[in-house]
Amino acid sequence: GRVAVPDERVKILSNIAKSEKIIPTYLDFVDIAGLVKGASKGEGLGNKFLSNIREVDAIVHVVRCFEDQNVIHVSGSVDPIRDIEVINLELGLADLSQIERRRERLKKQIRISDNAKVEDDALARIYLEVENGGAARSVKLSDEEKVLLKPLGLLTYKPIIYACNLSEDELEKGNSYSQEVSSFAKKEAAQNVFISAQVEAELVALGDDEKQDYLNGLGVSEGGLQSLIKASYQLLGLRTYFTTGEKETRAWTIKNGMTAPQAAGVIHTDFEQGFIRAQTINYEKLIAAGSLLEAKNKGWLRSEGKEYIVNEGDVMEFLFNV
Predict the structure, then answer these.
(1) Residue 78: other Cβ atoms inside 10 A
(2) Residue 7, SS3?
(3) Alpha helix positions (H), 236-291
(4) Nearest alpha carbon to residue 262 among 182, 210, 186, 316
């Protein structure tokens, strides 16, 4: 499903520009079911599951952290660390199998290709780490090694968020299960968020004001889905910039370090290819001015060229020539 990234700044910019439309930026979440013990050997959806997960940028592992006799657990009891270890073991076994196949193919190339030697050395280090219960993401890699290994889509190399699925009553403070998961995530240097599928189902049926009243009653400021989206943004190294005018105010997602032409290319490839310059002001500065016209009068609008690295919250207008 496509999920709008919650961002009050879009609404505020729209009010300033009196925009006809507001368009948030989105994240795509893929719900991939079917991973069970033995998946690396074909149990459950097996390899189909594993091939699906290779295509994602990050993994969100939703871990059951609530007791409910009416909701059956596939393993017969609630034990989040066991569940995490089952999943991680299957991902690790799949990676080991893939590394073995890849290294076998590299044997013929090592004598004639420096790249093959570099890739094989990196895979050897990763294999040792994963074989000992670790993850590929724990292994330090050079930029060259990262480029060479990217096509493999190693599962344990993907960044991970552990989402503790809690009951409505325990969403605010968590419980002993979620504490275990938080400790586990800290050791792995992984992200950890609290979410309640029960609460999210309730929120879908409520209006904005009712939603906030409901969340306040639970002692939380936002739903778990919002926390998850923010954590995903942080994990993937993403930034938001804005375009605003009478027709629409829109948020755009870019990666950290993108230049102004690359950011323009997110809108349309023609914008990147024909980029001349970008009229730029940061969101906070624009709010202080009160309008783009007032910001221009104060000399706060900057003209940025091709080398400019776009910052979080920049409001931009691109000048290009096709």
Answers:
(1) 16
(2) coil
(3) 260-267, 269-273, 283-289
(4) 316
Q: What is the pLDDT of residues 20-29, one digit of tens each?
A: 999 999 888 8
Neighbours of 313 (CB within 10 A): 18
Amino acid in position 271? F
Contact partners, residue 5, CB within 8 Å, separation at least 6: 24, 25, 26, 27, 229, 233, 240, 251, 253
Does this model's pTM top 0.85? no
- Residue keyed to tokens 């990763």: 126
What whole-number percentage of the chain has pLDDT above 70?
94
Long-range contacts from 109-117, C-beta under 8 angstroms, 24+ separation: 115/148
Contact 288, 12 (CB under 8 A): no
Burial of 181 (0-12, 13-18, 19+ CB in 10 A): buried
Q: Which helix (H) or strand (E) holds 67?
A: none
Q: Is the separation of the CB atoms in 271 and 264 below 8 Å?
A: yes
